[in-house]
Amino acid sequence: MSSGRVSFLDQLQNREVTELGLRLKEASENVTINHTGIQQTAKRPIIKKVLETMTAGIDVSSLFGDVIKAASTKDLVQKKLAYMYISTQAEQNADLVILAINTFQNDLQDENPFVRGLALRTLCSMRLIDYVPYMLESLSHALIDSSAYVRKTALISCIKLFNLSPKHVLDAPLVDQLYNTLRDRDPEVVANCIVALNRIFLSEGGMTVDTNIAHYLLQRLHEFNEWHQCLVLDTLIRYKPSSEDEIFDIMNLLDDRLKHHNSGVQLTTVKIFIKLAEGIYDIQEDVYKRIKSPMLTLLTLTSPEIVYSCLEHIIVLMNQSHQLFREDYKYFYRRIKEPSFVTLKKLEVLEGIATKISSKEIINEISGYITGTDKVIAQKSIESIAKISFRIENVLSYSLEVFMKLLETGIDIIISSIITALEEFMNESPEKVGSLLSVLPSVWTSIDLSSQAGPAFLNLLTTVGYEISEAPYILESLIDDLESYPATSFRLQLLNSTVTLFLHRPAECRGMLAKLFKYSMEPYESLDIRERALFLYRLLQKDIKKAQEIFKHQRYASKKNGNNNFKTRDKHLTKFNTISLLYGKHSEQTLFEQTPGNFSKRNDDQFFSSPTHHISEFDELISLQSQNVVKDEFTLSSTVSIEAKKFKACWENFTESHEFEISLLDSSASLISLTLDDIESVFEENMMMIMASGSSGDYLKFFLYAQEINSNILMLCELKLNLNLKLAKINLRIGYEAYGIIHEDQKMNLSKYSEYFIQYLTRYVKELSNLVK
Amino acid sequence: MISQFFILSPQRGDTLIFRDYRHDTPRDVPDLLLDKLKTWQKNHGAELDPPPIFNVDGVNFLFTNIQGLYFVCTTKFNVSPFMIYELLGRIATLIKDFCGILSEECLRLNSSLVYELLDEIIDYGYVQTTLTDQLKSYVYEDPVPVKRENIIINSLAKLKAPGTNLGSSRNRPIVHSRDERSSKQNEVYIDMIEQLVASFASNGMTVRAEINGSIQIKSYLQGNPEIRLGLNSNIVLGRDKDISSDKYGIVFDDYKFHDSVDPTDFNEYRRMVIFPPEGETTIMNYRISSDVSLPFRIFPILLRDPRCPNRMDITIKIRADIPEDKFVSKCTLTVPLPRVTQSVSNENTDDSNEQSFQYDNRIKNIIWTINNLKGGTEQSIKVKITGATSFSAVAELEIGPISLEFDIPNYTCSNIQIRKLKVYEKNKSIPPQRWVRYFTISESYICRV
């Protein structure tokens, strides 16, 4: 049925195209006046129709010959349309292009410079390598044409040819000619010449910018149009002035560009200012002040896209200098009609620039966004208030007051977000939060327990709010209705929380704890839940004192991620005024191309969700108790790749080694059916790469490696797995990839991370038995 | 380096204009973007706007929504986002200048004119020029006017968004059919527009007051004649530098000029010389944030009856603090109400033609519109609201912020005026027509309850 329809459509389209061809052949060249009073040839509307058909995605290549004939005409609109057709269709009709050469030849000699330019542009945009010599010849004439329009078109055509065949261009005496053209009297020609030279010398970082060229361009800067100013300034960023005086001269020359009406020019100038000030410490503060005002003015523009980009750049500047925007916080208040992506960014800025003096005012302003209809903004606003209260002393009580009021509104989404925020406050100031928790029993039914607010609520309830008389009843009702809450994170927290409450109020909780343990150890439960339940059960059984000690300290170090900003900020400054800055921390070099080429890369997935594995918080908790170390991120790289030779060298060099065995006996299933591939996929999915694998005797043998991102530590592992005995023998070595002298603190790291690696590996080796089901 | 430029009509997903400059990205990118936008809406709901930049398979999409149409650039290079967004806006203005208006219909009728423009604006992904004078000499196609009824539809759409219906009388192309040229062409429009950003706290205090001013010029004058324009002499430039006790005036925090302006005399005499390109240009922007006298005050009062917890009375008074000879043609107040609100009744007995009142139960908003509000007068409204359940103790948190939209003709909030305006045109016997207009409009004018 459907295929019938398609072929019917095809037929219809074919007929349409054939008809257009007939009409083209018949139409005369004479100029007539149509019904709207416009002079045109009879062919013009037909070619227009052809182009429309082409834009609609219908194949019109069969008309190539007819359209070429229509290109030689005095009607310029018709000529343009025909050329446009030729440039898009030339590749499919390479053998027919020869017919068009005559037309090109005539037009390149035409007395109208516009026709000469048009012909050259069209000729060089055909990607036909056979015609490159012909194109090059036309080019060399065009570069010395009397018309600037032709010259500037010729320069862009140079780039087209270079991309098509670099060798042809480099062999021709073109490059010298280009350097001469830099001194052309027409600014547009100069600008295009820079573009061409930048492209040809891309591998060397673009055109060389020496003192002569830099000052020559600076002198002529005002002649260029706004777009070319962007380009020229962008090229000037590469120039390194030789003295401080020169730096000040350049800054003076460029100062008025900060007030330019085009934000592209402004931001490129800002970037130059930052770059120039890099070496001179004394003037940095002044330079930042100087560039601030124009950026604030950009925020008042009505184009939300520019405002958005500007905010992203302000965030980078803010991380560089926290003082800079602190008095301008009102510019970052929401405007009623702005799109939410702008508001979200503004909130991010407010988080960073709030000071002791301004924070209450800012929190008060933000609290007004929470009751609105936009959920995402409500959530982000609550998060922002929390972040400000974390960073700045003495505003916590004020924020809590605000939150208390909002809790009373009874709006689900607000309550859930506030509970999540309160949990974070809990570590900071347990007494203050504790005094507020008496509201929990009346609001908890509005919390979305399947979101991250669920675990947060449980943690709050049992860690700080254990004295609330309703607490056991809330937990009991949850345990009785366990099937409604399948999320693992919620279930793990429920186990922890019930145990915590049990330790505080054993009499009331004994029954429900037993029930929960029983449910959680059912074989259909996930491995994580079963493991956790078993562990807690044994802990309570073995040493209740120890358990009390552990759970009293369960307010583990806050989740704030240290000062990562400091490491990355310089990198961000170099990204100034580029798209990659808008992608924030996720940006990867690989998203962009230095050179044009094929487009088969798939970076998308990686970009939108970084596939990293975090060891569960609980495991950290254990190590936190035993070793008293601060929480570290443990994230394995998904992209690590090392060669066999390197593996061997590292294996011999690494001094930190561990040998141990893991028994898989508690699994009832037989492992015999497992294949090498099955096991490999488990490891690979979890960022442990396979160097080699095979079977020797009773053993399956694997060489694995992995790299931890934050510390760059490499793990190498020899794993021998006996499927009959259900036993894994492991030889683990870890160390730094670049060997040499190891510092004291790195040594500390090594022993710490070896623990992590052992836990991590053990967890997934054990998981192998799950494969059999 | 721009790979492609295209214009999308999002409703039906049609690509109205599509130009591939570099052929280094797939041809079906408009569909990719549409997919991405649809997925975004599915995941985040329609109210959350997608960020104006996406990366799909290594292709970067930068786009902007102008009058319901998506203007999109794709690129594979790490270019300046500011430049691209500026360019998208400029292309839209140019299309408007050359075709008269910007609409789906107009783009369909004038597609080849638009392609002509696009070919001259960008060559192989490199921006060449956006100057109207230059482009005019490269573009040969004549604009096709959109039929009458469509203009009406278009201007209806504009009425819905107050503040944007400025100068609809000027919707005609800068290039006319060759035989249509006449002396009527010889006109220049200058608009001084001040957009207000203001917010009041619930106690009536002004939290912020800011003027974003711009001077826009639309010129039909031939050959870039010189225009001299002078502003008030009591303008003070720069907040930090110039302020001393003996200087009073209107303080510009920051300002900037278009390239076509020679501002040499501005520092001393507040004068500028303009060589306006044909078509629409913003020749100056400025920003004022100190001593702003706001044109409206809003006084909301909430009354609760302890005996009826599901009832509440809201009284809102608005006062126009502008000179008595000025008036506000239309002024709209929007008041969000608590989520449990069920019904609303308006108690105003003197309901004349000058006012209208609406309640939208779906989004729980009341909209109060006042026509012809005179300077120095007040209006008030009293509304009784009833909730499905009783209002919570903190229900007033959910009321507001009240947002105000207005449009005051012939008035600038800062008192800046064009004091001198002279057009120096060579070889013209008929002096050019000059039109100067002033507007104060709301950008974000809100009052917390």
Automatic annotation (TrEMBL), chain A:
It comes from the Eukaryota. Its main location: membrane. GO terms for cellular component: clathrin adaptor complex; endomembrane system. It is found in: Endomembrane system. GO terms for biological process: intracellular protein transport; vesicle-mediated transport. Residues 38-542 form the Clathrin/coatomer adaptor adaptin-like N-terminal domain. Keywords: Membrane, Protein transport, Transport. Belongs to the adaptor complexes large subunit family. This is Armadillo-type protein.
From TrEMBL, chain B:
It is found in: Endomembrane system. GO terms for biological process: intracellular protein transport; vesicle-mediated transport. SUPFAM superfamilies: Second domain of Mu2 adaptin subunit (ap50) of ap2 adaptor, SNARE-like. Keywords: Membrane, Protein transport, Transport. It comes from the Eukaryota. CDD domains: AP4_Mu_N (cd14838). The keyword Membrane applies. This is Adaptor complexes medium subunit family protein. One of its GO terms (cellular component) is clathrin adaptor complex. InterPro entries: Adaptor_comp_med_subunit, AP2_Mu_C_sf, Clathrin_mu, Longin-like_dom_sf, MHD. Its main location: membrane. The keyword DNA damage does not apply. Residues 185-448 form the MHD domain. Belongs to the adaptor complexes medium subunit family.
